[in-house]
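Take a look at this chain, tokens included, and explain the fold to me:
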Amino acid sequence: MDAREIIAGLVEDAIRQAFPQAQVPGDIAGLLEIPPDSAMGDYAFPCFRLSKALRMGPPQIADTLQKHINAPQVAEARTQGGYLNFFFNRTAFASQVLASVLSADGRWGASDEGKGKTVCIDFSSINIAKRFHIGHLSTTVIGAALARIYSYLGWNAVRINHLGDWGTQFGKMIAAYKHWGNEEMVKTGGVQALSDLYVRFHQEAETNPALEDEGRAWFKKIEDGDEEALGIFNTFKEMTLKDAKKVYDVLNIDFDSYDGEAFFNDKMEPVIQELRDKGLLEESDGAWVVDLEEEKMPPCLILKSDGATLYATRDLAAALYRKKTYDFSKCLYVVAYQQDLHFRQLFAVLEKMGYAWARDEMEHVAFGMVSYEGEALSTRKGNVIHLDDLLTKAVEKAYQVLEEKSPGIQDKQTVARQVGIGAVIFTTLFNNRIKDIDFWWDRALNFDGETGPYVQYTYARCMSVLKKGAHVDAQPDYNALNNEEARQLLLLLSRFPDSVKEAMNRNEPYVVTRAVTEIAKAYNKFYYEHRILADEDSSAKARLMLTDATRQVIRAGLALIGVETPEKM
């Protein structure tokens, strides 16, 4: 049972009965509010929206509607000011929520509302010849979570890793390799050796500016198809993808496309020509731009004075290619907030080209920066935390915590992996994505409070309770759930589908993370206040059903954000 939809249906019926001539608002479910205090009700309908059409004050509307509310699920409909507040019949509510959650078979909140629609999600987008570092953590786990959430709601999610595999930096990499590297160094040192060369190049260039010219010359060779340059570059690319694949496997993430900047190199000229044909290209100091003064933005640079293309040129080609290839209904770019202007310009140029879908279907899903235990990170200065090292350390630290807290647990290494990796993901997705993240081990791996291990432990607790109660075979007495702790938990379970939809509509995975956290907290409060297997079997059965529903929803929620659920902790 979706409690919000039930209340929305009751409100709609009441409006039709009380005001037959009135036009019922299209989204009553979206208008419903959750009162700030549970003493005010479980849901509230604000009548202000109807006031103008009915030419009646909101309190009078609420009083009139209240007389037409009569349903077994609602114990009371009470007016307060311009609100109509609903109080559920606890026994009937418990029965219906549990029946709905348990019949969903682990997919409570899933739907087919996105059937026939495609969302392209551009995320992770690693750079060639650089190790996967913590700076890519947010884009990677946010994008993967959104792909799961959209898929859960019936969308076809296309996962795109738009590789950073084009630009002068790769000429610099080759210059560094030719100066200080060799095949054996790269073969044994892997991508780390390439990263070291990149750092050295910038250090040496500070005293030898001529290196910058060498870097540009080598990149020109890549653009011209020089055999040696392309051979070295492709070796770097293969090494990087092989290295990144290890991280993606640990995070259980895959992609449908690795088409990066280089893929669109031969697809830009038609876009540039289209801009010319439509009279959008203007010369500016030898370069070519699209004027965006009307949009109150700086001009979008399409071609440099030397004829070189830029990110914007390739992203225009990529957007048009994706629309043609996937016919998306949404295209999301999970990229740090510093690129906000770039994407606003990109969408504006597409709209000026006549592609109205750019306004409604494309979105920059921005996020904040990541620091590590109070320290900012910089690739150029060599001050980075590599993601594979972070994940390995997470597993090691989780193992140490389990040794202390659960020394007798079996298959401790597997559980440590689930807890450690889960803690990293959970921490990243716990807050609004635009907030900066400062990653601290003692917070991430804390078993108390709003953390991944805490929610995972709650799931394991549910499993333990269900195992102990496996012998109970009786008809449930839902009166055993007629208490405030059970009520709060049932409300949270009933609202989980709302959280999934909200997470998709706002492109905010943290909404799901917070929802399962609140469910875990509510279950633990219920667990401590009420002995699950006490009293007669019929009461125990109802509590066990609530435990099972909690288990299923926690598992579903954690799976959506990419966190596994250990059965024992």
